[in-house]
Amino acid sequence: MVVLSRDPADCAPCNETPVALGLQPRILLFPERVGVPAVSRPQASRRETRVTHVVLTHAVEDVERWLGFKSERATVIGAMGATNVVDHVAADGSKNVAVSMDVADIGPLQAALASPPPELADGMQRHGVIPPVIAHVEK
Question: Which residues contact 84 (CB under 8 A, 6 or more apart)?
Fold first, then answer.
């Protein structure tokens, strides 16, 4: 694909003469991206990490008590590799709650839910979590 440029330096290596309106031809390396807004282009970065959106649901003894531990919960879940940790309460006023998060590697979270270490189990009890904790994964 050829695109016209006003910059003579773009054409200096090939010594071509200017075309209409003083524009110089240049070759685009990624013609498939022409006209595509940058925000909708696929990312080519090697540092790109795919994250999975996870929602944990469970019941609690007291919703207000559970909400009082919001920052502690976000810190503990964040230590397992989660980001964007958000607490949710049931709109119907029941004692059902949810925690949503993004995780790059779901392994540590699954391991902690399958066999909670003593400090996690103690924290869950302190927060008033009633098992089971069910993990829902974005597909």
Answer: 100, 101, 102
